Amino acid sequence: MDDQPDITRRRGRKERKAARTAPDAGVVSPVSGGHYCPLSDEGVQQIHEAALTILEEIGMGGVPEELRLAAVAAGLPVGDDGRLRFPRSWIAEMLEWVPKQITLHGRRQELNVPLGAGITHYATGGMAVRMVDISTGEWRPSTLQDLYDCARLVENLPHIQVFNRTCVPSEITDLRQFDLSIAYACAAGTAKPLGIGFNLPEHVSECAEMYDMILGGEGAFAAQPFTTCNTCAVVPPLMYGEDNTVVAMEAARRGFPVKMTNAAQAGATAPAALAGTMAQTVAESLAGIAMVQLARKGAPVIWANWPFVSDLRTGAFSGGGGEIAVLNAASAQMARWYELPNCTSGGMTDSKTTDAQYGYEKGMTNLAAGLAGADVIYEATGMIGSIVGCALEAYVIDDEMIAAARQVIRGIDVTEESLSIDVIRDVCLGGPGHYLGHAQTLELMSSAYHYPALASREPPDAWVEAGKPDLRERAKERVHEILGAAEPLTDPSLEAEICAKFPVTGFHGG
CATH for 94-410? Predict the structure, then answer.
């Protein structure tokens, strides 16, 4: 009987250790950035004024007829050169129409993501055309099954709050089947807020109809729009893209929140000077938001100014590095200054595998954007090879990396209690001289600290004895665990109805 308390304590320690090393579960607590400001107050104002000058004097080219008619009806000038110009006063008025806060809905309320509320979230993204096969490690064309598996994986990774389409079904060539298959595979895999895109405007209404079926009735999606419409309606430098513009305008009318992505590359489609890139891309992003408001005044739109970088030695896109980190942080700062719902990019490593380059590029870019206070950081997870490819195990690794980044973004809360003077007194004046068994330590060890499940913290000898486990191999094991246990989200009868109505078959689960 005397031994029993020791056995109980040992069992308790084992259980606590298991809980600390188990993967996180549930909804994570919110964090707020905004601590990092790469632009001075004067710099923000200078970029704003430069953007207004660009819109007023240079304007936007490639204006589709539908947008031209809406602009002329609003009294905006379209010059003999075909360029649409925006007076300063009109831009100021237009910005008042844009909702300052919107919700990216999940299919369950606890999965909702607020934008414009000062809370930072992380998301997937990309239109990768290749996948790193989890079994062979070889690069191959991505498929619809890959997209579905990515969605199922993210459904069970708590630090990734939004699932933006990650890869494309390269086996599908029909545009209608392509768009609607992506729309269903994403929704079949996760109940988290989604992001998809469309090749043609008529596919927007079909998707809304499909999502009405998933939510249970006509008009349900308009009331709970759980998917944003991703568009690249702006084509740098200072042009509109015809197809994406028409899609964006239709999506705005159909109730989709529109993510107005602008992805100019410094040194290629934007000036090599970083301030010049900011001036041009801010102008382009304002022009994109204006286009959505011309389609439907007051439509929810997301500032998605994603300044990219070219490696000036080759002209190739570069997704990792200090320049892209500071540019996207500056974009988040500008969006917060405009008080617009916003997102930036991060995590677009140029590495082709999960190596040290992968780690430092993703960690730097994701942390910089989070510290700058972006509402959502897209491309943050899973992407490799300058967003050409993605890997399932990368999502698991990145989820753990984001958990650590969130600890940095959260900062240190200083209160009378957290200063711990009484705790220090207890330990140092007649106490044991350490804090390991103190009540405060036991309380905070499970509520204030993050314990990685994949990263190694064991002593070197223990690591060797365990067979020198590799982070990538641990992540692959976790992928198989999640996908092996994942339950279908869609009722089989509803899935059969959707598959009969829309061309979405071709993956396990659809």
Answer: 3.20.20.480
